[in-house]
Amino acid sequence: MYTYKIHLHKEDEGGYTVSVPALPGCITYGENEDEAISMAKEAIELYVEELVERNEPIPDDTNTLEHTVNFEFA
Fold first, then answer.
1. What is the model's pLDDT at position 22?
2. What is the enclosing helix (H) or strand (E) of 19?
3. Exposure letters 45-63 (e unless 16+ CB within 10 A, then b)
4. Closest-CA residue to 23 (of 7, 49, 4, 42)
């Protein structure tokens, strides 16, 4: 089992751009959050399939911790 964190960035014109930090260049888009997540799953599958075909290691986020740090500037 592999674990991947995804980042959804809400676009000004609508929809969400999704990136997968553990998989450089793995970026997709969805019209809403559900579609964006579904598209991310598909993009991850395709990305990993390509790594397997090339006999390259498959990275994941199993050992990655994520925190949000908030700042308020005057």
1. 96
2. strand 16-19
3. eebbeeeeeeeeeebbbee
4. 4
CATH topology of domain 1-74: Double Stranded RNA Binding Domain (3.30.160)
The model's pTM is 0.86
Residue with tokens 């991310």, as numbered in its chain: 40
Per-residue pLDDT, 32 = 98
Domain ranges within the chain, ordered by starting residue: 1-74
Residue in the block written with tokens 């019209």: 31
Pairing of strands 27-30, 7-10: unpaired
- Note the pLDDT of residue 67: 87
The segments of the chain whose pLDDT lies below 50 read none
